[in-house]
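Bump. Still looking for VOC family protein structure tokens.
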Amino acid sequence: MTEARGPAGLNGTAHTPGTPCWVSLMVHGMAATQEFYGALFGWKFQPGPQQLGPYVRAVLDGHEVAGIGQLPPDRHLPIAWTPYFASDDVDLTAETVRACGGTVGVGPLDAGDAGRMAIASDPSGAVFGIWQTAAHLGTGITDVPGTPTWNELFTRDSASVAKFYDTVFGYGEEPVASADVDYITLHIKGRPVAGIRGVGHALPRDRGPHWMTYFEVADVDASLTGVIDLGGHVLKTPRDTPHGRIATVTDPEGAAFSLVRTSH
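Sorry for the wait, here they are.
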């Protein structure tokens, strides 16, 4: 993680291209998943675009913060939080993804009047979304408990895949100057927006390269107890880092995410 605060796109304006602007989760049990996150983060839910099936948007204090959709019964896809990155032209971005060795699995397609979207994967197989704003601007609030605050790619080697994202989204890079840490912070206009962490053979065999979403909480340890009580599981127990206290968990369907109380 890094001290990324205050992403563009809040307060009724569109997100700057390349910045994470939304996170979405596709699950089998919509009702149970809403109960879990509603209890954990205080989310309420309202209907969203139904182009890919039943879909709701999570709302916190009147602001939309995340999406949850229904997987078709015959689709056995990984249950995972997926970050969406802002684009002024999702069709052009999708073409660039393909040209750079990535894959476009869904779209580009219109999500009603909300915007235009695609779901893609980088050359290593990590899945991400692309969002072109229309009526739906994306995440409306961040850096308060119950909101996504950071997105990080876990992959085998940071340098090779970073070139893909730099070309697709126009990022600048800031590598960590350490022989022991393989980490690159991605920047837009000099501001940190996401990270790439190379973990080599420590990458889980059952998951492969993947994006991880960090959700801000008021108290990591208390939220961890909530996760367990609500049927989730702990992947990594709480640890203190220069950027705050962090724990990694899964929801009852197995979607991994991290809880963080950031150091301000």
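Residues 143 and 149 are 5 Å apart (CA to CA).

Edit: fixed formatting.
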